[in-house]
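Lecture notes, unit on protein representations.

Consider one protein chain, 252 amino acids long.
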Amino acid sequence: MDRNFHAEASTIATQSDPNPDLELVDAAVYNLVIDHPDGTILWDTGCHPEAGDGHWPGGLYDAFPAIDAHQHRLDDDLAEAGYDIGEIDYVIQSHLHMDHAGGLEFFDGTDTPIFVHEAELKYAYFSAKTGEGNAGYVLDDFDHDLNWNVIYRDNVAPFEDIEFLHLPGHTPGLLGLRVELEDAGTLIFTSDLADSADNYERMQPMGPGLIWDRRSWFDSLRRIHDLERRTDAEVVFGHDTDQIEAVGDGWS
């Protein structure tokens, strides 16, 4: 995608250079599996495999081409990682944008709990049904017979050593995740509160259309900075390709 989506004003015109070259950058899309004593937990469900075949609106795909989505069906990727889709006991949706909710169809008609924040579910339907709100929601991603477990508060810890963090800004109901591991310590997954290290470390917002509310975004970002300092956490961003490649197979 255009780097200006990754971080606003990455490329700007000046009097001496009125037509600067724009730059396209990669943005990783990833899911997580958490092996927990209470069950197998899936964080996000990725892009729909037919994103480029009409599932995503053409204009959105042109701006954010998920060029290998067809190679990454959720059930296939889980199988490659050693899991069966039927073994997933819980799903946590950080939010319901098209690059995070595309695999929810695999849980249609099941009793698998799908955790989502109340504000996110409402805003996703509002956006997809009215054409207002935000264009990043594709109704066919989440309009299924799903066992929604709706989160109403800012901090919820439904599992031992796992806390959901309500981090409005990118969307009204974005959920981050704090995970405590015995060996690796504290991990904080920001989802798209911060696409990359630039957004987080330099507090440089994402580009056009990717911030629902700037004041809320800055407040949520400061909250994670404070939590990082207090817990000596490792912070994992939403779409930082270099970071995700370095993470590799995850944490023990």
